[in-house]
Write a structure and sequence with these properties.
three-stranded antiparallel beta sheet; alpha+beta; four-stranded mixed beta sheet; GMP Synthetase, Chain A, domain 3
Length: 171
């Protein structure tokens, strides 16, 4: 089988198939294969959140039409933001305490904390926190990691993945 170089999804009123072009400019078609489609809306180029999924559908093998689209309720939020505060005051408050504790413990570093949160069906499912610090040395880094892990265990969330990234702004 030739490895596809470029896929095209062709939707017509009577037929749905996947086509691709091989390096030899020969067109191949795979009629009646199962296909999973999503509609994705990209954000602006400089946005922190890359975009959102809007809807999904699955076309089983042998089918030629799309019966329905299912809404995808996955939303991404940044911290700090008013939209997160209005959606989930409790989580926003906990993240604000976390941010203030880290900034209080490391005043001399001028830390900046940004969070990316993902909600599915209204429930928090993923949290990523970036801690931006200029010119941090090894000792300060160890102390910052210890403080961050202690604060997360005390005030933040159970049962969701949490990723903390320490970023030296000057490297």
């Amino acid at each position: 089988m030739v490895v596809p170089q470029q896929f095209s999804l062709i939707l017509t009123s009577t037929f749905l198939y996947v086509a691709w072009q091989s390096p030899h400019k020969t067109n191949y078609c795979l009629p009646y294969v199962p296909i999973y489609l999503t509609l994705y809306q990209e954000s602006n180029k400089n946005d922190i959140i890359p975009g959102i999924f809007l809807a999904e559908t699955f076309i089983p093998e042998g089918e030629v039409t799309i019966d329905n689209w299912n809404d995808i309720d996955i939303k991404n939020y940044t911290f700090p933001s008013e939209s997160l505060n209005s959606l989930d005051k409790d989580t926003y408050g906990k993240l604000l305490i976390f941010k203030e504790d880290i900034q209080e413990g490391f005043k001399h570093l001028n830390t900046k904390i940004i969070g990316n949160l993902r909600y599915e069906n209204g429930n928090l499912i993923d949290l990523k926190i970036d801690v931006h610090v200029p010119l941090i040395n090894d000792t300060e880094l160890i102390g910052l990691l210890q403080l961050a892990s202690t604060k997360l265990n005390i005030i933040l969330f159970d049962y969701i993945p949490i990723t903390i990234t320490i970023i030296d702004q000057d490297q």
